[in-house]
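ingest -> validate -> predict -> emit
validate: passed (alphabet ok, no gaps, 800 aa)
predict: started
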Amino acid sequence: MRSDAVLCACAALLAGALAVVAPLPALLAVAALVGLLGRQLGVGRGFACAALFALGAVRAHAALLEFDHAHAQARAFLAAPERCSARARVLSSPTWTRGSVQYMAELCAVECEDRAALPDLTARLYGGPGELARGDELDVIVQIAPIQMFRNLGLADPRPRAARRGSVVSGAVLSAAPSARARGVAAAIDRARGHVRRRIEATFSPAAAPMARALVLGENDLTSEDDSAFKKSGLSHMLAVSGTHLVFAVVALVHALRFVLVRVPFFAAGHDVARSSAAVGAGLALLYADFAGGSGSAWRAAWMLTAALLARALGRKPSGARALGLSLGVGAVVDPLSAFDLSFMLSAAATSGLIWLGQPLARPLERVRWRPLRYVALAAVATLSSMVPCAPLLALLGPELTVAGLLANLIASPFGEIVALPLCLFHGLLGWLPALELGVAHVASGALLIVKAVAHASARATWLAFSVPPPNAWQLAVLVVTAVTLRRLKRAHAALAFICALVTLGILERAAVRAGAPRGVLRVTVLDVGQGDSALVDLPDGRLMIVDAGGFVGSPVDPGASIIAPLLRERRRKRVDIAVLSHPHPDHFGGFLSVVRAVPIAEFWDTGQGEREGAGEQYRQLLAELRRRKIAVRRPGALCGRKHAFGEGELEVLAPCPEFVPGLGANDNSFVLHLRHGTQRALLTGDAEAHEEAALVARFGSRLRSEFLKVGHHGSRTSSGEALIAAVRPRVATISCGMRNRFGHPHVSTLTRLRSAAVLALRTDQLGSIIWQSSGDGFWLSAFGMPRVDETELPRYGNR
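emit:
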């Protein structure tokens, strides 16, 4: 198999960006591939690929540095959400989700409450008039703040994705008055999108309208249940603007144009109609990608189709591999961080599978005479060949893969791609024929509802699903090198290479398991969950404890589903031995319901105050789920007064003992946990305030002595009093607080008290997640935004 030099060069440019977050795996993988393809590429082309890889890394690094600088500036002048007035100009195509519009906007003449004018900003805004297009200008009053990124060691770096979104500030539009209406191609496309959106909502079945909008406009407005079903069933691609959609829409237009032009005598006589219509189609592909929402997968497919159509327009035979390579190269040139766009990479992986797996497998099947059998066989090959390369990427998104997806695709494809897709696209042109428009909408709705039913049925077939760990950077590198190697070797050698790859992946997986569940150490990982609290505690005997699970009141963000459960998967943790709710406040229990549903939990520690005095519907649902799953709920009476041994370590519950104090606030009834491992100790105080702190000092005094302190109540002025700090005498303290919190946490007085006591104070809003690990006779620190630091190096770090 010959290697296409253009594909290799463009792939190298794209892959260079990955070196920013995983430099060593990316470098070794590229070195292996250049060595493997060296004889065909030649020395010059090999060096060119290496140079393009380095260029991609430099451009991605520069993009991240620019984003970090802009984000730091935004935090400097917007420490918390503020109400501001501004002139806004719409920069991105508006999309609708949950009945509200969202878009990127340039904010000029920004004035906030009791503040001098701020510099111009680019912000992601939520809300405003329904009729918006790129270039429109508005006078707005907005509530804005720097974007909150959840930066946790072990999970993917959120900065590339945030940088790709193009803003460091986001917020809600409180009021808006249009001041200027834009003209031009971009504005016309957005107004056409708005017209199609309104007609879909007016004529499609309410249950099918969100799917039709996803299919035509690229807007994901599915319910959480539907979205989950499509992901679990492997049918998400049917509601994405992918290569299939572009090929159908654009190629249909190209054929229609050729049909018309060939019947125009003066034009057909002097021009090659096929080449002329292909040239027009190249431009139509780009326009359609923009109309369809401009996702990474849409643009990649559009660039690939454009390359193929231009080749045909120039009288050349299109090459699938070269067209794929050009689409990757254009993506990397336009966006240096496009390698971090999962939809872009899934589209590239699926196309690669169709070219290098699907085509060889399909050739013998084309000789099958019975058409129904040939159709089913070819459809199965296409589905399988596109799904196999995507499997590692899909494993990054969820804990399971399912073989039901193969059957689901075979059943749903005729309804989704043969019936629903063309009808949904045709529907947008029928506004002048209301009866036909309504009829088409009804038929398309029926087809989409069948696809939806197949997705839900496939998702319920859990017996066909199997758990997979998320591949780390090293494993992904091995998979890429193996895939290229297998395509180049003879069958006997390929079998040996496959076995070597399996052994290597097994060794890497074993290393990941050991790193995720260490033994003989005490590791406290304070998670970045925004303005909330959550920590993972790896106990010396290998058991795992979770203390709190974060939460946001009135926000759709679920830290249990988006942070804690994925981190448990990354650490290969399939069980939680102890889950502790320090006290029944939403910013501590909001994520627990998702955690309880994601992994088995042996026992749950709860003060009991929430159940007796009430803590809201979400807390009630949590208790009900615990009891439904027969998880033991343990109260202070069963936990206080004794030391709990965990191998070489022990844990003591210091408060509230012997039970919570009725009538006292939940903060001052927080669980306070004291952990000991050799000479090292850690104190976790929940949201304890002055009353509980005074009781602790009076009862335990110097027994509170700990090297590590989890500061109470997010650094509030009512916590971490001088008496507690003097008794604990910590060397390191962590403060869990969010970038967008309205409470001024951590308070200046708390930071001053810690600084006066020579305590190194580390904040999750500044550093992301923080790890404190004890070996029994010493400790080290690490954070998302700070390299590993041994305890002997603390003095030179000073106080943060």
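The first strand starts at residue 82 and ends at 90.
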